[in-house]
Structure formats: C-alpha cells, structure tokens
Write a structure and sequence with these properties.
This protein is an alpha+beta fold. Helix content is 31%, strand content 27%. The structure holds 2-oxoglutaric acid (AKG). It comes from Nannochloropsis gaditana.
C-alpha cells in the first residue's frame, strides 16, 4: 500500500468532499425528477456550493461525420451542408438543468398532457412560451445559450430571438416529421434538451424536392444543445422519435437510448424582416387610429 504524501492528503480530501457533494446532489435531483423530493432538491440547491459556470465543453462539432452525436451514415444528399447540423454536449450543468426544470415544472403544473397538437404534429405534450424567467439565474442561462448559438455560428450578437418555446413531452409522447413554418421564424432552430435523451431524425422533405430516404440522426443527451440552420432547416423535416414498444432505440455505437419524459427549450431567431413587419404593423395601426 502506498500512503499519500502530506501534500496529497488535502487534495484527496477535497476530491472526496466534491464527490460526496455531487452524489448528494444527483440523488436529490433524481428524487426531484421523480416528483418525490422537491424539498430535498431545494435544500441541497440552497445549501450546496454550486459551481458557477457551465461544464460547457465546446467540442467543435464540425458535423462532418466526426461528431459522436450526429449520424450521417444514411445521408443520401451530397448537397446537404453538414455544418448546418450541430450538437453541443453539456452546455449547462446538472445543477442548472435542475433549476430550469424546477421553474418550468411550476409553469406547467396546472396543464395536462394534450393528446394531439392542433396540426397533429405532437402527441402527448404540454407547452409554454417563456417570455420572462422568474429565477434570474435561469434568465442568465437562457441568455448564455443564445450567445453560445450565435458564437458557434459566427452570427451577429444583435440577432433577435423569438420567445423561448418549451415543450414537455411525456414518456410516450413524440414529435412527428415536420418542417417549421417559415412565416414566423428565421433560419435557425436550436433546442436545449432536459431530463431525457432522445433521438432527433432529419428526413429529406418531399415537398421541397428532397429525397425522403436521406436521413440524418442526432443523439440528444440531456443538457445538450442542437442547432439546425442553413439547408438542414427548411429542406429537411425533423422529428423526435417515440419510445418503441419493442424496446429502446440504439445509437450507432450500439448504446441504448432510453426515452423518458423530456423537456426542451427551443430557440428560434426572428425572421430578418420581422422588425420591418412590426414597424409596418405599428404604422398601419397608427394610421387606423387617425382615420
Ligand atoms: O423538442 C424538440 O427539441 C423539437 C421541437 C420541434 O420539433 C419544433 O419545435 O419544431
């Protein structure tokens, strides 16, 4: 047995303390998620020393097939710009995830899971539009995510976003293949996944003259952020796969992907002409008032 030297002892001790803190936090978080221990989670959150920054590992996902979270093996479209699809893992910490979930739980408490979306795209879900955050730290997290998106894409920091759209998908819920309406949002849709892993599937959209056999899959782990832009945005339909009755989906490396209840924060940019459209609308309203 090799005994630690005197300078190593404080090092081992602090690692042990950090380890215990993390385990207690994880246990309280899972108790919180199962609905059994909201109070326990809150206590740990208040007493615990939270890490300030995100465990944000900016793995430069060039999306050229090297990303372990993007599967291009069934892509039959050599015009698809692979950098229009990104997945960034761990953009927030477990603590930050729990904080966001706590606030969103409060927002959704009185809502029931709806069987069907108005245009039949989503099954078994609840949703809310987040224009403001109660917890100032959550507001900061949302702001940081926007900066991460813009920095990743080298876009102007002045880009305006629509209010965050939150979807709470029940364990047996899913999102069918669809192409977002370009009427309201711009060239960007990004999603922060919370609570559960999921597989997002992109399929060439026939209406846009694309090959429906061209498929790209994204592994969305909790706390990861996906970004769809460029020609992946409106030429491909996207969907969140359902839990298969015969078992869990498998990722390319054989890993099982267990889908349970999942929350997602969807960030969309405003259409570039949105400002002008709003101005035109205001001018019309003013004109009407004077008439
Ligand atoms: O939950 C997600 O990440 C996907 C959301 C989605 O498909 C959409 O908002 O158009």
């Amino acid at each position: 047995m090799v005994w630690p030297t005197s300078w190593q002892i404080p090092c081992h001790a602090s690692c042990l303390v950090l380890y215990i803190h993390r385990m207690v936090f994880k246990l309280s978080y899972f108790a919180f998620r199962s609905g059994a221990g909201r109070w326990m989670y809150t206590l740990v959150l208040k007493c615990g020393r939270l890490r300030s920054g995100p465990a944000y590992r900016m793995i430069a996902l060039s999306a050229s097939g090297e990303s372990p979270f993007i599967d291009f093996s069934n892509c039959r479209d050599n015009t698809l710009d692979s950098s229009s699809i990104r997945v960034l893992p761990d953009v927030i910490t477990i603590e930050e995830e729990a904080r966001l979930v706590a606030e969103l739980e409060g927002n959704m408490r009185r809502r029931r899971y709806v069987a069907n979306h108005w245009d039949s795209v989503i099954e078994r879900y609840r949703e809310v539009e987040k224009r403001a955050w109660i917890d100032p730290l959550n507001a900061k997290i949302a702001q940081r995510i926007k900066s991460v998106i813009l920095q990743t894409l080298n876009k102007s920091l002045a880009t305006r976003f629509l209010p965050v759209h939150v979807i709470d998908l029940a364990e047996d819920g899913f999102i069918k293949p669809h192409v977002d309406s370009s009427k309201f949002s711009g060239g960007l849709v990004c999603g922060l996944s919370l609570c559960s892993s999921a597989i997002m599937q992109l399929k060439g959209d026939v209406e846009q003259g694309q090959n429906p056999d061209s498929i790209v899959r994204l592994l969305l782990r909790p706390r990861s952020l996906y970004i769809l832009c460029g020609n992946a945005r409106y030429r491909y339909a996207h969907e969140i796969l359902a839990t298969r009755p015969e078992g869990e989906e498998r990722w390319v490396d054989g890993r099982r992907v267990k889908r349970s209840r999942r929350l997602s924060l969807i960030f969309r940019d405003e259409r570039e002409d949105q400002g002008r459209r709003e101005e035109a609308c205001e001018t019309d309203m003013k004109k009407k008032q004077h008439e």
